[in-house]
Amino acid sequence: MVQPVLDTRCVRCHDGCKPGRSDLRGTLDSGRVPASYRALIEGGWVHYFDLTYGMRHFKAEPLSFGTLRSRLWTVLADEHHQEVTLDEPEMRAIKAWIDLNCPLWPDYIYRPDRPGAQTAQVR
To answer: Count of CB atoms within 10 A of residue 10's CB?
Structure first.
């Protein structure tokens, strides 16, 4: 749901070619993770909980995570992004993705069993 929005609104400037700019393309790495996902998560543009297996979990306070704490919205509102306009469905798709804790896959298939995973290096 999110990659088509990034492809339409962001990739023309964030195509991985310019140093210092996030790569928001859907290009998959060896772990079959899109460049856009890595850029948004590892770059700290979206606020999410890293729910690594075996990690001690805690209760989050309301309004302490997700869209409200994501830097992405501040950046989209700055002077460098005045030409970027998300319509209502695009904005909802990105906000829902962030508030659902930025899921990587749209299903619960075990990563080594995913189609094409035979050739991918699983992290």
So the answer is: 19
25 neighbors 15 (Cβ within 8 angstroms): yes
- What pTM was computed for the model? 0.78
With residue 88 as reference, give the H or E element that holds it. Answer: helix 88-99
Token representation of residue 48: 């999410």
Neighbours of 81 (CB within 10 A): 14
**Contact predicate 120/32, CB 8 Å:** yes
CB 41 within 8 A of CB 102: yes
- Sequential DSSP letters for 25-40: S--B-TTS-BHHHHHH
Query: How far is residue 104's CA from residue 119's CA, in Å, rounded to a whole number?
Result: 19
Read off the pLDDT of residues 9-26 as tens digits, 9 standing for 90 and up.
Answer: 999 999 999 888 899 999
pLDDT of 81 > 60? The answer is yes
Query: Could you give the CA distance from residue 4 to residue 89 in angstroms, rounded to a whole number?
Result: 12
Q: Which two tokens stand for residue 68?
A: 């409200």
106 DSSP 8-state letter: S
